[in-house]
Amino acid sequence: MTGEGGKRAGSSRKLLRPVLWLLGWTLIAFPIARVQLAETAVANRASGKALLFDAGHARALASVATAVQLKGDQQQAMALARAALTREPLNVTAMRTLGLALEQTGDQAGANRIMSLAANQGWRDVALQLWLIKAYALKNDVHSALTRANALARTNHLPEITYPLFLASITDDQLRPALAQQMADRPLWRGNFFYRLLQLPADQMPYVAKLIAELAKIGSPINPQERAIYLTRLVQVGQGQTAYAYWLREQRSAGNNASPLAWDGGFEHVPAVGALGAPFEWQLTPESTGVAGIVPSPKQGKQLSVSPGSDYRGTLVSQTMALRPGRYRLAARVEGDAAATGLRWTIRCLPANVELALDTGPGDAQFGLATFAVPAGCTAQTLAIDMTTDGDDSGGNVAVDDVTLQKIG
Questions:
Q1: What number of H helices and E strands is found in the chain?
Q2: Digit-coded pLDDT (tens) for 147-160
Q3: Given this model, what pLDDT does residue 29 score?
Q4: 267 vs 284: CA distance, rounded Å
Q5: Of the residues 46, 138, 248, 303, which has the fewest C-beta atoms closer than 10 A?
Q6: What is the per-residue pLDDT for 323?
Q7: What is the tens place of the pLDDT at every residue in 322-360?
Q8: pLDDT-derived band at 64, boundaries 50, 70, 90
Q9: DSSP letters of 279-335?
Q10: Is residue 9's pLDDT more than 80?
Q11: How far is it, in rounded angstroms, from Cα 48 to Cα 194?
């Protein structure tokens, strides 16, 4: 080829190359756009439109199959689901829809096979988890049923189904250990589960105690918040003595010198305001902020300090007790004019919340010393320091420490 001919051929190739690139990009770009439009339609829950862009789009086929199956056309649903699985063999929605359609048409064996395959792929498909829970329950495979319920709870799906299932498991000697295993690694739903214990009736609480023992046995004991909820519910349903006995054992096993009567008379272990402590610990009310607080004692340790000067009517600090019927003497070391500050003790029976009468000493001794009687049937009590003041600070600051209780009859 001459030099001139070679130049013309090279020039032609240079002109042809952009054309080929343009043609190739056009051929590629069209299916990319088509797939993107189909994906967008699926994302917008418009699976029918997705199939207009890509007739074989697996997720769109699976979604339409689900809709058709729910309308009752099982044969069409199976055809669409199988078409989806041809394109995407592990599509969980398609497998689940095919399984449900097979079940509806009487092919239970086929449904079980396809659902078993889907089970290995899908932990987030809600309908699949519900079907598996039912299937495992019918086979008495309680551990697998609870495992699937756990999967739903971890994604915060259908709490109206999962939590009743968990709560029902407490009373069954087979289900309870299986439930404890699901709770062992402290999933997020465990906290909500304990809060739901506040709805349980009194006859269910012994089973909760067994669950707590099971959790401790497998190395996942209840934390302070869970303990507080459990003890609070025991008190609410009239089992204050059981609650206090449990709490007392825990305190002594931790090396704390817990009293069988009032706890922490020196205000040494008061939780921060707003913290969820056990009912048998002193609790400062949120409203008391700026009026009452725990401060260092000049003698040693800590004390309760009350600073008047603002209008206040209500409880400053309280704790739950579980005193047995009889007469008791309440004493405290008080510095300042408690009467002028508007301080007074109140004791109420729980769960009825009936106030007990206090016999107090005369004058300044009326806050530092009192006697009272606990009647039969009063299984738990609240001991509280209340304050009623109109903002007059003439009484000055008051310090309370060394609270003691003594049974005298």
A1: 16, 11
A2: 888 888 887 777 87
A3: 36
A4: 11
A5: 138
A6: 92
A7: 899 999 999 999 998 888 888 899 999 988 899 999 988
A8: confident
A9: TTS-EE-GGGTTTEEEEE-SSSSEEEEE---SEEEEEEEEEEE-PPSEEEEEEEEEE
A10: no
A11: 44
Q: State which H helix or E strand residue 15 sits in.
A: helix 3-43
Q: Which residue type occupies 298?
A: P
Token reading at 129:
């988890």
Residue 350 tokens, joined = 């729980």
**Choice among 7-16, 211-220, 347-356 with the minimum mean pLDDT:** 7-16
- Token look-up 């047995």 returns 324
Tokens of 181: 């295993």
Burial environment of residue 161 by CB neighbours within 10 A (0 to 12, 13 to 18, 19 or more): middle
Give residue for tokens 């214990």.
Answer: 197
Contact assessment for residue 303 and residue 401, using Cβ atoms and an 8 Å cutoff: yes
- Residue 13 has what pLDDT? 47
**Quick check: 305 and 270 in contact, CB under 8 A?**
no
Please identify which residue in the block is written with the tokens 């189909």: 38
- Strands 311-321 and 283-284, how do they pair? antiparallel
Q: Which of 87, 109, 86, 114 is nearest to 98 (CA)?
A: 114
CA–CA gap between residue 221 and residue 184 (Å, rounded): 9
The whole model's pTM is what? Answer: 0.69
User: Look-up: residue for tokens 């209780």?
Assistant: 405
Handedness of CA 112, 115, 119, 124 (dihedral sign): negative
